[in-house]
Design a protein that fits this description.
Blueprint lengths: L6 E5 L11 E7 L2 E8 L7 H6 L7 H5 L6 H16 L5 H30 L2 H22 L21 H23 L3 H7 L7 H7 L4 H4 L7 H4 L20 H25 L18 E9 L2 E9 L8 E5 L1 H5 L3 H4 L5 H10 L4 H4 L2
Antiparallel strand pairs: 1-2, 2-3, 4-5, 5-6
Helix pairs in contact: 3-4, 4-5, 4-11, 4-14, 5-6, 6-11
Length: 366
């Protein structure tokens, strides 16, 4: 008389909690999630194939449009991969400025994550506060390169321009607001009983599962693995910076929230070191107007806000564009872990699991 059956329900891609174009095929027994199958491919970006048909210099702008919340990190990975391929030495001042911009980008990305994640769960006020502070970071990007979202901040060999007059004051003023903001986020959320109920013990992913699935970034560090490419394989000027790698061991949504908050503080610390120790000199290496390659290949990983992003470039003799190009994006690997995170979960936890991954489908459907 009271039989139950597993019902197959589609969540997304139109649902706002799935961030646009992620479809989840759920098997539900009432409110209980019995299975989850993530389906991607709704964007049809084709970035890698486009870049194979563009000159090395032209590929830069396409990296902005993958994870559009962290365009600077994508720019940096692309530029450094090609610098490694061509043996280009970047001036020290440019490496410091790149590090500074990359950490400002990390702050921006984490603010977007926290605001949207909190709003998905039901905390609308946090979204308004994070957007207030994010505007200050975007003002800095606009002063530097004239753009706020798709920045194209880097160039192969360094930077197109040096920072403008008054740049340091603008950064420090932004940090005054962001520091106060982080304290406000903690006051609003860290001991909020609703937030704790929705995040503690929810969407857990162990260190072993992270390593098996290739999950990196704050999700891996929240599972107790202190792996950060900025420390493990330093690039830009990170070998000259002093900073900590935040970790937790709980491996749940709340732990990832704490890790990202501390990463924001560490980013501020890194940028302040860059400002204090910023060397004089040029910001661009001397390179030819046209780059022609020899036969070779290179893989260059960097630590994006969401995890490891790696650029794999294959070149052919005399080529002015990549022969083959592939990007290892963190979101593509992280999203495959959703079924593991939703074992014995409720429907409401599906929204939390997607939010804690910090999904941006532009880099997944690249």
């Amino acid at each position: 008389m009271f039989k139950t059956q597993v019902m197959e329900i589609n969540m997304g891609p139109q649902h706002p909690s799935t961030h646009g174009v992620l479809r989840l095929k759920l098997g539900l027994d009432g409110e209980n999630v019995k299975s989850c199958y993530p389906i991607i491919g709704y964007l049809h970006r084709g970035v890698e194939k486009i870049c194979e048909n563009k000159a090395f210099f032209q590929g830069q702008v396409w990296t902005d449009r993958m994870d559009y919340c962290s365009a600077v990190s994508n720019n940096l990975g692309w530029a450094e991969a090609l610098e490694k391929l061509f043996g280009i030495r970047v001036p020290r001042r440019a490496r410091y400025l790149r590090t500074m911009l990359n950490e400002l980008n990390r702050l921006n990305s984490h603010l977007v994550w926290l605001g949207t994640h909190a709003m998905d769960i039901g905390a609308l006020s946090v979204f308004l506060y994070t957007w207030r502070d994010r505007e200050k970071i975007l003002d800095v990007f606009e002063a530097f390169c004239g753009s706020r979202l798709t920045t194209t901040a880097m160039r192969i060999g360094g930077l197109q321009e040096d920072v403008p007059e008054g740049f340091e004051k603008m950064v420090r003023d932004a940090f005054e607001s962001v520091r106060i903001g982080i304290q406000e986020y903690e006051t609003l959320l860290s001991e909020n009983r609703i937030w704790l109920k929705r995040t503690v013990g929810i969407a857990k992913l162990s260190a072993d599962d992270c390593l098996a699935y290739g999950v990196t970034g704050p999700i891996l560090r929240a599972a107790g693995v202190a792996y950060d490419i900025r420390k493990a394989h330093p690039y830009a000027a990170y070998d000259e910076m002093k900073f900590e790698i935040p970790t937790r061991t709980e491996a749940d949504t709340y732990a990832r929230y704490l890790v990202r908050l501390e990463e924001m503080r560490q980013s501020i610390h890194i940028v302040e070191q860059c400002l204090e120790g910023l060397p004089e000199g040029p910001v661009m290496a001397k390179i030819p107007k046209t780059l022609k390659s020899e036969v070779g290949e290179v893989y260059h990983p960097t630590e994006a806000p969401k995890g490891e992003i790696g650029f794999y470039v294959v070149s052919e003799k005399g080529g002015v564009n990549p022969y083959r190009f592939h990007i290892r994006t963190p979101g593509f690997l992280n999203v495959q872990a959703i079924p593991l995170m939703l074992q014995d979960a409720l429907v409401a936890d599906v929204v939390t699991a997607v939010g804690t991954l910090d999904v941006v489908l532009g880099e997944i459907d690249r």
